[in-house]
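User: quick one, fold this
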Amino acid sequence: MPDTQMLGVLGGMGPLASAQFMLRLTLLTEAARDQDHIPALLWSDPRVPDRTAARISGGADPLPALLRGIRGLEAAGAGAIAIPCNTAHGWFAEMQAATALPILHIVDAAEAELLRVGVNPGPIGLMGTAGTLAMRLYQERLEPRGWTCLVPTEDEMRRLVSPGIERVKANEVAAAYAPLAEAARALAARGARAVVLGCTEIPLGIAAGPALPFPVCDTIDGLARAAIRWAGR
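Assistant:
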């Protein structure tokens, strides 16, 4: 029987981003003692096939592994599921159809985070994996609500964003800052009033260097705050 206060975290995509989600979930929760924190179960399975490869180059389907994780979280008693991987949300409908548990949507969490920091609907930058951008996960969910998503050029993806994400996944976090920051600055120069870090590796790279001179939306923090709201904290 599910524990309505137990958060299930479907992670491992990548492992460092999932660990950072657990850290931020803990640090963002108002708590004075252990018992004030949110009970959580982390299913961190880095064997899930690459989501971007599945969508744009015929790679292995990640859905069976995603559903295996959901079943594991259900069996362990989770009452809701958070997925700290943006690209995995390309299979959101299939995952939600496979479980009665609510799955917190990371794009909705990102929108709430933008509004929290005072960025209203309008032009925003969007950085993410090639898979997330190809699936238009943010555009299809946010544009009907008044947001306009500016995305990196193909050249910026090839030179900056994809290599930055790969460096974080390889635990070379400090080396990810320069290319990711350059891509974010380019979006701001084209009119973005804030930049959504729409891959959960990107906030780790951006945090490894000086703060950028415009608002950024950390989707790890956004999802952690959505989980805290779900838990009523």
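User: anything notable?
Assistant: Residues 161 and 180 are 6 Å apart (CA to CA).
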